[in-house]
Every structure is written in C-alpha cells, then in structure tokens.
From TrEMBL:
GO terms for cellular component: EMC complex. Belongs to the membrane magnesium transporter (TC 1.A.67) family. This is Magnesium transporter. It is a multi-pass membrane protein. It holds the Pfam family MMgT. InterPro entries: EMC_subunit, MMgT. The keyword Zinc-finger does not apply. It comes from the Eukaryota. Keywords: Membrane, Transmembrane, Transmembrane helix. PANTHER family: ER MEMBRANE PROTEIN COMPLEX SUBUNIT 5 (PTHR28144:SF1). GO terms for biological process: protein folding in endoplasmic reticulum.
Length: 137
C-alpha cells in the first residue's frame, strides 16, 4: 500500500502544481475573466487524488477506547522508547500504555516528575523539612 499511496501523492502533486500554474497564468493574462472549467476540474481532481494518497499511505489507526489501546500495549510487554541513559543503556517501557505522556509526578518514580510542572507534594515535603530544621538548610 505504501507504493500505491506514494504514486497517488506524486500524481496528485503534479496535477495540483499544474492547476495552480494554469490558474496563475490565466489570472495574469485575463485579469477580469472567471477561471475556466477545465482548470477548476483539474484542481478538484488533484485534491481528491492527493487525499486518497494520504489516506492510503497513512499508518493503522489506534483504537479510540483507551482501555483497549492500553491493554494492547501492556500485552506487548517491554518496548524500546528510543532513548538511552548516560551509561549507554536502552530505556525500555514496562508496558504502560500511557508512559509516553510523562505523567510521572515524581511520587514513587524516578523523582524527576514532568518537566515544566511544579511538584506540589514535593514542595510541601521540602517546606516541612525546612520548618523542622528551623528555617536552615
């Protein structure tokens, strides 16, 4: 299907380019006349062919129901995330269907939490420790 999608995209792109060039030449030459029907039809056909090529070459859709999608990922087991540690070891996800969202808030995890988000419970613990030590670090 990838070859068919690529071919449809190429043909659609050629038709679209020709239709745009023809409409530009027509408006430059005949400024106040409407666009001819053949250019309009070519433009619509090119859009339809490009749309069909995009649909044919698109990857398989994921299920809409989160539970099925999460269950599918959980059944597949550990998979590579494409990331590496400083020591050169590959990071594997444990089959958590939502691991890619980075929802770890630092509680019971690696402690880093989500970048750009403020860890309220961690800050409360820091404040409690600060109060216990009498305001000294």
């Amino acid at each position: 299907m990838a070859i068919l999608g690529t071919a449809l995209n190429a043909v659609g792109l050629i038709f679209l380019t020709h239709a745009v060039y023809s409409s530009h030449e027509h408006t430059a030459t005949f400024a106040h006349t409407p666009l001819p029907l053949d250019i309009t039809i070519e433009l619509l056909v090119s859009i339809l062919v490009l749309s069909a090529g995009i649909v044919v070459s698109s990857p398989q859709l994921k299920p809409i129901q989160w539970a099925k999608w999460g269950g599918k990922i959980a059944r597949e087991g550990q998979q590579s995330e494409g990331k590496w540690t400083k020591e050169g070891e590959e990071i594997l996800s444990e089959g958590d269907g939502f691991a890619f969202l980075g929802l770890d808030n630092g509680i019971g995890g690696d402690g880093e939490g989500r970048r750009g988000f403020w860890d309220v419970s961690g800050k409360r613990k820091e404040y409690a420790e600060w109060v216990k030590t009498g305001g000294k670090k």
